[in-house]
Fold this protein.
Amino acid sequence: MNTANLSMDLLLCGETGTGKDTLAKRIHDLSGRTGSFIGMNCAAIPESLAESQLFGVVNGAYTGVSRSREGYIEAACGGTLYLDEIDSMPLSLQAKLLRILETRGIERLGSTDFIPVDLRVIASAQRPLDELVEQGLFRRDLFFRLNVLTIQMPALRKRREQILPLFDQFTQQVAADFGCPVAELDNRLVQLLLSHSWPGNIRELKSAAKRFVLGFPLLGGDAPADRDLETGLKTQLRVIERMLIEDALKRHKHSLEAVVQELEIPRRTLYHRMKELGMNDAEEAVIL
């Protein structure tokens, strides 16, 4: 990963469960930085405690503080500070974070001593930060400071060709952990995996793999066990057809001429199939 060796801050954007935490840790491991990987979930820490957790405090800074301690930023010195769900960070704290990113140093609560820090910041967001900026919920200057290099994490439903390989990988891991065999997927379960929308993305897929290995319903609820076979086959074929078209569009950078040549179908047929499958690119496939 080329970006891992670059000493620059990163922004990871994507829905919950798309693997932002895993990618952030992987980038740190490949970076060669000798310090620790320190993660902070901006949505999990109360606003009243967030500042002391991030910047640290000195003895007597406020009632109840009996000793000095470092915060997340100091702890990440020489390593990586991972700010998860930065889109949930209070505006008051965003201004102070911006100053730290620009000065590369902090002042603990209750002190005016400047402490320089050598760290790399990786931030992640579930909601589009540019939209939050327009809504007044995220500082524009902080957004531009973080947006030097952004990695977009696609939702699992937009890369369905990876569902079955990932599911197989996860089931093998679970089977090894529990010391039990993995049952074979039947056509109905394959159809279920490919047609499910996966709102929880990879995290949800991992849970489904664990339930499958342990013999519980795949999606943890009512599965369409008695669905008509013909209807199921049609649905599965539609999913596979969409996967093939999406994969061709991705590889050919949405060049429709290249796609029709690879799939060996008329442009008009491609347009109608894309429209029938509800693909957004269908509007751009103008019939010549």
Q: What stands out?
A: The radius of gyration is 24 Å.
